[in-house]
User: Fold this.
Amino acid sequence: MGNGFVRWGLIGASDIAATRVVPAMRGLGHEVLACVSSSLNHATAYAARNGIPDATDDLAAMLGRDDIDAVYISSTNERHRAQAEAAAGAGKHVLCEKPIAISLEDAHRVVETCSKAGVVLAVNHHLPGAGTHRTIRGLVHRGAIGRVLTVSVRHAVLLPERLRGWRLSDAVGAGVVLDITCHDASVVNPLLGSPAIEAVALSARQGSWDSRSEDVAMSVVRYADDVLVQTHDAFTSPFTPTVLEVHGDEGSVVGTDVMTQDPIGQVLLRDKAGTREIDVPDRRPLYDIVLSAFESAVRGDGTPTATGEDGLRAFAVAAAVLEAAASGRSVPIR
Ligand code: NDP
Assistant:
């Protein structure tokens, strides 16, 4: 690695890379050396706009560079699997956007291929590493609310106008469930630390735009030990506060504004002693946390915030919710 910092190649000339991840990489001293797009014109304009020295539409050529340690894959969802496999085949460490793939088989393949290649695989789930979520997990795992009974996640936002493209199309990988419900699962899975068993769900198209995929979804997921988790995910709700509530038989934890991309939000604990705010010691930006953990993992020190297996488990929940909403049936989670 260059001076101990990761030297990156971008696969996908995307909004999230430009607005969040590349600035975070640079803030941590990482270098962004190249970007690949399926369109050379787009890659060239994007590289110029974002101060990236090299732009190409030749993935193999970028992956052949010795000075690139790792790739950040933020293309559209249906391309993640093939790009991650190609990167692992070239010996590059992989930070892949969620969902890790668009089928369980493909998700397993990504995890296995990276493992066999001996490269680090992380999924860019920014929420589980957030200071607020680690504080909430700490309370729950210490038994502060007793036995967990139910969890409620509200992660309903207004999709910004600039992002109203492929997410609202009928392409495989579009829709709010793969976009947001898998983030919910990335939080709930480590919070409960037990397997998700089955999902029921309803979804709808309620935006003022011409959406070909669901833009709102509500689900109930049963985890082991009969813990019930409800989610409300939307692209259509401009003023809805995001919330994670965890209810136990001895107390409740309520995290408000915690399902966001920024290091904000408040954690309240409510039990027989009353209601009090719990201090959140780590307010580092969420993508910095993911990238720092990734850098350490590449050095052989620790594991990513969300490993490939974590990304696979989060995807499995979202995939079941999607199938449940489409079929109207309860879907087992594999
Ligand atoms: P974008 O729509 O910005 O980019 C996705 C792809 O669309 C690009 O890789 C590019 O393809 C193509 N594209 C975009 N703009 C143009 C253009 N002007 N001309 C030609 N092609 C274009 O997607 P997002 O940044 O919103 O999402 C990318 C990925 O990141 C998704 O997997 C999404 O789920 C994930 N994401 C994750 C977030 C998180 O917090 N972890 C937040 C937001 C998104 P090409 O690759 O060929 O250049």
In short: The chain has nine helices and 15 strands. The chain has a mean pLDDT of 97.
